[in-house]
Amino acid sequence: MEVLTLETPGGGIHAVRRRPETTSAAQSPIVLLHDSLGCVALWRGFPDRLAEASGREVIAYDRLGYGESSPCLGPQPATFVADEANGTFATLRESLALERFVALGHSVGGSMAIEAAGRHADGCEELITVAAQAFLEPRTLAGIREAEAAFAEPDAMRRLARYHGDKAEWVLRSWVDNWHSEAFDDWHLDDALARVRCSTLAIHGQHDEFGSLAQPRRIASRTPGPAAPSLLPCGHVPHRECPEALVAIVAAFLSHP
Predict the structure, then answer these.
(1) Residues in CB range of 239: below 8 A, 6 or more apart
(2) In the prediction, which pLDDT does 165 show?
(3) Spatial separation of the C-alpha atoms in residues 134 and 190, rounded to whole Å
(4) Is 53:90 a contact under the CB 8 Å cutoff?
(5) Residue 170 Cα distances to 6, 161, 176, 180, angstroms
(6) β-strand pairing of 2-8 with 11-18
(7) Which of 28, 43, 109, 232 could make an SS bond with 100 (beta carbons 3.0 to 4.6 A apart)?
């Protein structure tokens, strides 16, 4: 495992590279984009499992304001999903000289992966979304409000601070406030999905608390395919709830010629 700090105008970005024991230089690396409360550490053992199963290098990074990356000064802009592709993700790609890559994102990280695949179509070979949001629906907002209420418990905030330190309150408010802002009233990724040119696999938990099956179906129907999403018997966090099944699905998808 290689730990890196990438310098950006906004501050340092924490990144980790994991290489399997045997890999081929011809296989492009997988870049992981985390969810709204996530960071590199919260992928837990998934990157290592994925690297070994796929035979590819796996790169994960903390967005600015999250995990071990520098704090983000001021509130997160309402355009943060679209901004990631030409912001930190672009810096990561340039700094690590990623000519070709696979984008894999979880939850809002999946939404960002869609943006990255479209805006970096010259290099994105495959796109994989896991529990991603393609449009705003009532279930998303209800799930966020329920989670926000749970964070009223001090132990919950202490657990969040374990991963984000003094940035924990900013991380929580960025999630809750942005999704409930007027700017997100009619939010969707239809334009971003239309820019995707690579093979796309939409993975979703059948019991996802934050998004119905309409989410992966829209992603699958508006990208080059497969035409149907891949469903798992879990909730919103497959890499924790059923990591072996998730790794197997991703590895099988990437092994197809």
Answers:
(1) 43, 44, 46, 106, 130, 246
(2) 97
(3) 7
(4) no
(5) 22, 10, 10, 15
(6) antiparallel
(7) 28
For residue 105, the SS3 value is strand
Mean pLDDT (whole number) for 223-252: 96
pLDDT tens column, 72-103: 988 999 999 999 999 999 999 999 999 999 99
**Mean pLDDT calculated for residue range 29-38:** 98
Percent of the chain with pLDDT over 90: 92
Q: How far apart are CA 187 and CA 151, in angstroms?
A: 25
Q: What is the CATH number of domain 2-255?
A: 3.40.50.1820
How far lies 173's CA from each of 14, 65, 215, in Å? 21, 12, 24
Residue in this structure with the two tokens 């672009």, named with its chain if needed: 90
Parse the chain into domains and list their residue ranges. 2-255
Question: What are the strands of the beta sheet with 2-8, ordered from one edge?
Answer: 2-8, 11-18, 58-61, 30-33, 101-106, 124-130, 199-205, 230-232
Check residue 44 and give left, alpha or beta (phi > 0: left; psi -120 to 50: alpha). left
Q: What is the largest CA-CA distance in the chain?
A: 50
C-alpha 241/C-alpha 44 separation (Å) is 12
Cα distance between residue 185 and residue 153, in whole Å: 29
Q: How far apart are CA 37 and CA 168, in angstroms?
A: 9
